[in-house]
Amino acid sequence: MKLRSFSEFLVLIFASVALSQSQNSGTSAANFLKIGVGAKATGLGEAFVAIADDATGAYWNSAGLANLNQSQVTFMHNEWLSDLRYEYLSYAAPYQDKGTFALSFSYLSLGKFQGYDLSGNPTADFSAYDLAAQLAYGHKLSPQFSLGGAFKYIQQKIESEKAGALAVDFGALYEINQFNFGFSLRNLGTQMQFIQEKYSLPLTADLGLAYRGLANLTLAADVEIPRDNSVRLKQGIEYNYQESIFLRMGYGYSTSGNEFSGASGLALGAGFMLKQYKIDYAYSPNADLGDAHRFSFTLNFGTVRGM
Asked: What Rg, from alpha-carbon coordinates, does the chain have?
């Protein structure tokens, strides 16, 4: 009965987000929150909600943090055209059998812009940036079922104007045999106000499936429903050679065809692991922002926790 009730809850969440979707297209602030983090997830076409097995789970599905058996820090650098840069840092630490906590930061630099006065005369340059700080937690309620949540602060700045907001995320992960089922709800929070205008955050619901029953292969697929845009379908595959070399390919499809996240289209990736060190790379073309190159560095350290 409990599982049935939880399933009904997920259906209700998806229906609510989908219902508001057609009425709120293109009306969100803080769209940098849509940019996926981690070269591993990007190489899988961002089909990562049912995997979320590293410190970037703080972003994708905080319930996945519960599966970490060792402290981990991940840093990602994402480079687009011109001066557009996106950085992400996450530190996750299991605490005995109480679950896993993660602290993460994301920062999008939009570069410098030429300023102009009301008469059109050039003035001093100005900069713009977006940032978010997040505290996440994941805990196993049973060997198969995990829940997670996160609290975040978001800020955007354009010249001297700033806007801030608070938001929460929720996640769930159910593992049975070789299958993982994941759910996440991200960016449920307050509005952001620039001068007199108020804008909602990009609320997103995501449902994912992953399968690890094939030798050395992981298959994943997600359905993502953003409140302010079209549904995205994402799928990915990873080949794992002796836990040291990883090859990935993913594909995302958005009916709108114009997403800042870059989740639409083909993605390719690779990873290399040596002892506790791991380096991941992902490439994803984007017609609007140019090709995106993501690099992630991950370090595992500390006492290994029994699962």
From this structure: 19
pLDDT per residue as tens digits for the range 15-40: 444 444 444 445 778 889 998 999 99
For the chain, how many structural domains are there in total?
Answer: 1
DSSP state of 228: T
Partners of residue 232 on adjacent β-strands: 224, 254
Assess if residue 306 is contained within a domain. no
- The CATH number given to whatever domain includes residue 96 is 2.40.160.60
pTM of the model: 0.85
Domain assignment present for 307? no
Residue 178 lies in a domain: yes
pLDDT, tens digit (0-9, with 9 covering 90-100), for 106-158:
999 877 666 666 666 666 666 788 999 999 999 999 999 999 999 999 999 88
Which of 268, 298, 294 minimizes the C-alpha distance to 77? 294
Domain that holds residue 91: 2-301
Show the beta-strand stretches assigned E in the chain: 71-79, 85-94, 100-116, 122-140, 145-158, 161-176, 179-189, 192-194, 197-199, 204-211, 217-226, 232-241, 245-254, 265-274, 277-284, 292-301
